[in-house]
Amino acid sequence: MADLDVLIVGAGISGLGAAYYLQREHPRKKYAILEARGALGGTWDLFRYPGIRSDSDLHTFGYEFRPWRDEHSIAGADKILGYLRETAEEHGIDRAIRFHTKVIAAEWSSSDAHWTVEVEKDGERETLTCSWLFSAGGYYRYDQGFTPQFEGRERFRGQIVHPQHWPEDLDYAGKRVLVIGSGATAVTIVPAMAPAAGHVTMLQRTPTYVLPVPSKDPIRNALRKVLSEERAFAITRRKNILQQQLTWRFAQRFPHAARRLIRWFNAKLLPAGYPVDEHFNPPYNPWDQRLCVVPDGDLFTAIRRGQASVVTDRIATFTETGVLLESGRTLEADIIVTATGLNVQAFGGMTLTVDGSPVNLPDTLAYKGMMLSGVPNFAYAIGYTNSSWTLKVGLLCEHFCRLLAHMDAHGYDTARPVVADPDAPTRPFLDFGAGYIRRSLADLPRQGGRAPWLTSMSYFNDVKLLRRLPVEDDELHFSHSRTHLVPQPSTHPNR
Predict the structure, then answer these.
(1) pLDDT value at 490 more than 80
(2) N or C: which end of the chain has fewer CB within 10 A?
(3) pTM of the entire structure?
(4) Based on the domain organization, do 301 and 163 belong to the same domain?
(5) In CATH, what number is assigned to the domain containing residue 301?
(6) Which of 337, 401, 457, 450 is nearest to 19 (CA)?
(7) Same-domain pairing of 362 and 429
(8) Cβ–Cβ under 8 Å, residues 115 and 133
(9) How many structural domains comprise the chain?
(10) Which helix H or strand E contains 143, and what residues bound it?
């Protein structure tokens, strides 16, 4: 008998959501959440850089089961963290979290139908057993951000800071700040630091699409005045889901029109004569990489006020007082912020073994975006890259609970995805052009060319697959540990 029915790894927004659905749908199952850090909240507790906020609206980024009540639709980390803490406390999820406990390795035994999980707690190693292992730790390393090699970095006499390791006592008042990067982190930090700093410069190799959005949702706030909080939230959530999906589909189908529209928004908020095409017109199409959202156009406001500027160039070398660019221009700085991205790490870095054979992730295929081929009783939560992360996580958690119910109803203790045609062509795990993803594709699972081996980025397709269609599938094999592993007939094959 395993110690736990389900062991959830990670106490961030995905792990807390998984715990809620599990205890709602399966109140008799024993579960625990392991968290390597000393607090819940994941990303929203880890990052402490100025201005940190969501780049999705909280009516869709928050949980479907718990309305977002704040008037701000785009919210800062403090409000998001408060929301997560309140959710965990309200549903008793906080009592199931074991802090300072990092998963090192997990080994599956088919004869026992359970995982033996090796963890490290306060420097000591111990083991737990569980029937299911649910990885909810996201896809990047919490202990280490990505910084490229910069020539002459050691010569710089000022302070170099990575957003993932922001010093609490950093004093940038009146100082020249150089932010290297152009992604979501950079476009958040620049306007947040600009009012207090002497001047903030965002240095980018390549422009990024930046889309201004209102920080408050006027329709939702109007609905609150005439409807209950729950009803107003439900309508707003549906509206925003539709808006996200239509925006993404429009950009995919009409990329040139989407590019022109975004450029029009940018030019409208920037000073007259500003070189928009030099600094805000990327060489790729919208949504080939994630769009950067700036609430109330705060980045453009900082530029318009002369508090911030954008430079598009490449670094030749760091100098004692800043950086020398390939164009020959020098940028002076007292503080350099390397907002250069993340290091991707699948499943928190844990190693998986099945019946004595190590699992090589690139040899596996993603099943329904939540399991791995050949790996029994292992699930994971990876959200959307083209809309709110939590939209997909909620659907995955619902489907996971349906899967457990199906297994209980039929007496199964093992579920293993098995590819019918191992020689079928595959493609990368995520069809996404972000640098942090491209750097790591060789170490990640793959996806196939058809369902159920696709990692879908369509909420409406996932609603059908994960919420409405049966969990049975010709390529999901169920068994009991005392019987042979045999496929069960599917009543509704997902082809």
Answers:
(1) no
(2) N
(3) 0.93
(4) yes
(5) 3.50.50.60
(6) 401
(7) yes
(8) yes
(9) 2
(10) strand 140-145
